Amino acid sequence: MKRLTLIIALLVATIAMQAQQQPDKTRLLLILDCSNSMWDHWQSGAKIKVTQQVLLSFLDSVSKQHDVDVALRVFGHLNQHQFGTRLEVPFGADNTYQLQSKIKTLVPQGGCTAAAALTDALSDFPATGASRNIILIVTDGMDDCDAEICDVARQVQLSGVVVQTFVLGIGGGEFNHADCAGTFLPVRHEEEYARTLYDVFRLAGRSAPVMVRMLDAEGSLYETEHPMAFYDRRTGVSRMNTIYTVDGRLQPDTLQLDPLVTYDLTVFTHPPLRRESLRFDVDRVNTVDLTVSEGSLCVRYGGRRPQWQQQPVDVVVRRAGERVAAQEVGETGRYLAGRYDLEVQTLPVTVIKNVEVRADAQTNLEVPLPGMLILSKPKGITTGAIFRLRDGQVEFATDLNPSTAGERLLLQPGQYEVVLHPQNATKYDKVQTKRFVIESSQTTKIQF
Fold it and tell me: How many helices (H) and strands (E) in the chain?
């Protein structure tokens, strides 16, 4: 135990120096396990006795830092038959004596209620004042009674109140749900106890510099601009959203990210680029290099422009069946090099398969300009549809509006058939059909 105290004493000066680098207040909520198993023997003594000695020395170190607040919540200590939890010492200035006094008097006698303690933890943090809020659960094991802690921990993270949750697992117990409860830090030997506590505290007050670099095939910075997002890998919650921008002269910005979090990165190219399980060090500039190979794609109308005003038409771009993006006819979009299928939202839809986008090149495609159909229908409510006839097959083009006597439709060039069915007709011989041809940029009139 003297060795543990000496380790903490040697770290006090370093704690002071690094805590000063973080201007915002850090609030650390200790959630301490006082279930019956904390009486079990562990190396030099009972787990609760070792924990009390380590925490008392740790609080001596933290008390010297005016920008650090500590609070204490305990579970398993109320009585033998109660699985409750209670905030024993709230956040507050100069509460070290209260914290140490309470820790000295704790008597384990209850069951495991880590999930309940974590549920109540959000209300322990003051709503006022900017701070980085950290939860540290100190426990000697998690079993089936804490199965719901995974859902609880995700709700805590989604709240935005807590930056990160840690689980300090002492004594080599069973930790079935520790990974989803928070960042799991196993402590198998007493001499690791104080140092692991210090590591959490040290990182809680610092940020990690991160530079994302998008490179071309030759390894040079790629001139581009794309949104990107860093997600907490454990919870899937977005932790930072920004715009990556390089103009060929300037290096990308250096971002400041939390070193306590494991990240998944998504850069919103078309389709997105992803990197998973990224950890960042506080002592260096961390670089994330992504090789980008992009080309451009444009779909235009071919032929002579008609006299009528053109309507915007979307082009849906798919890759391996998944929708990648949508752009309008006449617009140019950028995509990762590869092959794509296009759906031009004309009437009927124009499908273009296996279109190749090459790196640093533009792929240009043309679709015919539509023609105009002016359709005059009989009086009365009439349902109907238009079909395109091609190679002996019938392709559905569009439904007709039953409540109007006339319609104007832009259709792709080809041979068509219009089918009308009066609402009060009871026999198929009342159905009326007409065939017609649509030519690009030309007007076709059909009257029944």
Answer: 7, 29
Token pair of 269, please?
A: 């190219």
pTM (two decimals): 0.68
Q: Where do the domains of the chain lie, and which CATH numbers do they carry?
A: 2-204 (3.40.50.410), 208-291 (2.60.40.1120), 294-368 (2.60.40.10), 371-447 (2.60.40.1120)
What is the dihedral sign for C-alpha 342, 344, 347, 350? negative
For residue 194 the two structure tokens come to 């104080």
Give SS3 for 356: strand
Q: Is 142 helix (H, G, I), strand (E, B) or coil?
A: strand
CA atoms within 13 A on the CB side of 17: 5
Q: What is the rounded CA–CA span in Å between residue 55 and residue 194?
A: 8
The string of pLDDT tens digits covering residues 173-221 is 677 666 777 788 888 888 888 888 888 777 766 789 999 999 988 888 8
CA dist 264 → 229, 238, 261 (Å):
8, 9, 10
End-to-end CA distance of the chain: 99
Rounded CA separation 368/350 (Å) = 10
